[in-house]
Design a protein that fits this description.
The complex is a heterodimer of chains A (498) and B (176).
Chain A lengths: L4 H24 L5 H6 L6 H12 L2 H14 L5 H4 L1 H23 L4 H9 L2 H34 L10 H47 L5 H12 L12 H12 L6 H4 L11 H31 L12 H9 L2 H39 L6 H25 L3 H7 L3 H14 L8 H21 L9 H19 L7 H8 L1
Chain B lengths: L4 H21 L9 E2 L7 E2 L3 H5 L3 H21 L8 H31 L4 E2 L2 E2 H13 L1 H9 L1 H5 L2 H17 L2
Antiparallel strand pairs in B: 1-2, 3-4
């Protein structure tokens, strides 16, 4: 079997991609209007939504960057994972019920729709839509680039594709993504998410077993090796220190409820009461899949320090080197398919919300209505958005990484700082005002953007994202308290009472 | 529960901002956020743990405690006003106590290691790290249980469902 390692891995990835294409074709027949295209007409069951929720949360970063971070900075990176129970709990307590109720009451198809209904303000809708489009471009570009780099690494190991270029890999991977997103919209997206989520759960569990068997003494031997080299790396705050770690606790924990690609999925379940089972199901899936993140990084660091493995050229190579050295080809095939699944499940969610912002929310904020023939334009814009993001990805790789890095700054932390107060607190507090929302979004964007542009670093590993998040929460509540009492539409007012 | 929740959340956020500012203004320790490994490219090390916590350790712990309090306050904010009963307060208080206990075991377990350079292991990790890894994840499970098991009591009751259905029907009627 070992002699056919590369062929087995490629077969697993090809089977997975064929499945995505078939799902797109199947879902196309169920997509009749924009409500189907963007929110599956709120007709999904709890298992489907739960798997879609967690698989969208765990992007390619969790499978490539996550193990690389643990390899590089040790336990500091664990904080991004262990907050999942807190993050999902806060997200469900604050968002899931009310976002679903307002979506049904007002026939909302996007997060800016919800916010416009809550605040009765097109300005807030516009600002949120712009934030989403900027964030989507950065996220999508990095995801597409990651997908292409992994595909190139797999294919170049074969004789036929030994010299395949990155442009060809970007084209192939983007084509599959675009096909199922354009044909089947969010229906294709969530049903591929179900399989993607299942693959990630299986991959996480199997990798943990493989990782604990690398050293005779299991995980304890691995952590002992790291402890002897530098105790702090394997202590609770890791190499990056206490404030970097707690910053991740804050931004990833509370910030989950501010991620538009995740909370939009909370509008899609058939029954509001499904939320009670969706929380534990999502959390279980995420925890299982994240085992890969934690275990590979620790074992690879210990293996390098112990001399079993040559030092890695890049920390992000941790997962691929681990798979090639310590797993059998079948497991490697499943994990590589899981990696593509993780990247695609996040990418399709971003394509969906980015398209909604462009064809629905921005026109509605400017001219009071979304564009005509919106399903047709939704498909066209999905293609354009993915092509532009792929172009950004290639430009970033070959010419100048600055642009994508800047857009990347509009990632998790910016979404968390700008959207969390407006949505998570705003949906639960009648005193929240338009002024509070506009101030919070503006300052979150400015602080994140300026700290990224200026390359400013705060002492003790305090991140600009953490500063932006704390400031936006204080400003949102403070400004709302001192601005005139808001008038809320009577139906929304009654929803906020339920 | 008579306390004004949103003011409490604001006060907690302001306190967090003050602690954060204090940390940023504290005496700087070189390489407090890590430094490159002397022998391996791509690896970072933490170095002298006691030195880098000397000026900000207790402030960091205070920040973590405030964050845990804020998490509980936000979860309570997600419960409709009429359901914020003493029973809910008891559950949330117990959850907070558990979270603070785990944070305390983690922080002072680390301090103990820094003083003695000795540690036991639990399920593959040094004890302080085990509290961080398993403890922090598990300490939020009570919140998950309160939400899932207490869903019809605290989050969305049969009466809430009826109210919402009536609102939907009214909306459909008004829209013709």
């Amino acid at each position: 079997m070992e002699a056919f390692r590369q062929e087995i891995i490629i077969s697993a990835v090809i089977i997975y991609m064929i499945f995505c294409v078939m799902t797109g074709l199947w879902a196309m027949r169920r997509t009749h209007d924009t409500s189907d295209f963007f929110i599956a007409s709120r007709g999904l069951g709890p298992i489907v939504v739960s798997l879609a929720l967690f698989s969208s949360t765990l992007s390619g970063f969790g499978f490539v960057g996550g193990p690389g971070l643990v390899y590089s900075i040790g336990v500091s990176s664990f904080w991004m994972v262990i907050i999942s129970s807190t993050g999902y709990a806060v997200c469900f307590f604050l968002v899931s019920k009310r976002i679903r109720m307002i979506a049904e009451l007002r026939n909302c198809i996007s997060l800016p729709d919800i916010v416009a209904a809550r605040y009765g303000s097109e300005a807030v809708r516009f600002m949120l839509a712009i934030t989403i489009v900027l964030g989507v471009m950065g996220y999508l570009a990095t995801q597409i680039l990651a997908m292409a780099v992994v595909m190139q690494a797999i294919l170049s190991g074969t004789e036929i594709f030994a010299n395949i270029g990155l442009v060809a890999c970007v084209t192939i991977s983007s084509a599959v993504l675009i096909f199922y997103c354009v044909t089947g919209g969010i229906i294709a997206s969530v049903y591929t998410d179900v399989v993607q989520g299942a693959i990630m759960i299986v991959a996480g569990a199997l990798i943990l077993i493989a990782a604990t068997s690398v050293f005779d003494g299991g995980m304890q031997e691995a952590t002992s090796i790291i402890l002897r080299d530098d105790p702090e790396t394997v202590m609770p705050y890791g190499a990056a220190g206490i404030m970097a770690s707690l910053g991740w606790f804050f931004v990833f924990g509370l910030g989950l409820a501010g991620q538009p690609h995740i909370i939009t999925k909370m509008m899609m379940n058939k029954n509001i009461k499904d939320n009670r089972s969706m929380l534990p199901l999502s959390l279980f899936g995420y925890a299982m899949a994240a085992l890969l993140w934690v275990s590979i990084g620790i074992v690879m660091r210990a293996a390098v320090l112990d001399g079993r493995v040559e030092p890695l050229a890049l920390p992000d190579d941790a997962a691929s080197v681990f798979l090639s050295m310590f797993t059998n080809p079948l497991l490697a095939g499943i994990v590589f398919a899981g990696l593509f699944a993780a990247i695609m499940s996040t990418s399709d969610a971003f394509l969906n919300i980015g398209t909604a912002a462009i064809i629905h929310d921005i026109p509605k904020a400017i001219q009071g209505k979304s564009i005509d023939n919106d399903l047709f334009w939704a498909r066209i814009v999905t293609v354009i958005l993915a092509c532009v993001a792929a172009g950004f990805a290639l430009y970033s790789h070959f010419q100048d990484a600055t642009l994508v890095a800047l857009l990347g700054a509009f990632g998790w932390g910016t979404f968390a700082a700008s959207i969390f107060p407006v949505v998570a607190i705003g949906l639960n507090w009648k005193g929240a005002t338009v002024w509070g929302a506009v101030t919070a979004i503006t300052f979150a964007l400015i602080i994140n953007f300026v700290s990224q542009l200026a390359g400013y670093t705060f002492p003790y590993g305090v991140s600009g994202q953490l500063v932006a998040f704390v400031c936006s929460m204080v400003l949102f509540i403070g400004v709302s308290l001192v601005s005139p009492k808001p008038s809320i539409d009577s139906d929304i007012d009654r929803v906020l009472d339920i | 529960m008579k306390i004004n929740l949103i003011h409490t959340i604001l006060c907690t956020a302001v306190l967090m901002a003050i602690v954060l500012a204090s940390i940023c203004l504290a005496e700087i320790v070189p390489d407090a956020a890590g430094m490159p490994h002397p022998s391996y490219d791509g690896l970072q090390i933490g170095g002298d743990g006691a030195a880098r916590l000397q000026h900000v350790g207790i402030l960091g712990f205070a920040f973590q405690c405030l964050l845990l309090i804020q998490i509980i306050l936000l979860c309570i904010l997600g419960v409709p006003d009429r359901n914020r009963t003493y029973e809910l307060a008891a559950y949330m208080g117990a959850s907070l106590a558990f979270m603070l206990f785990v944070a305390w075991k983690m922080y002072f377990g680390h301090q103990s290691f820094l003083a003695t350079h000795e540690t036991d292991y639990f399920w593959g990790f040094p004890v302080a790290t085990a509290w961080q890894t398993y403890g922090t994840w598990l300490s939020a499970i009570p919140l998950v249980l309160i939400y899932s098991i207490g869903f019809t009591k605290f989050i969305y009751s049969e009466k809430d469902e009826e109210t919402f259905d009536a609102l939907l029907a009214e909306r459909i009627e008004n829209n013709g």
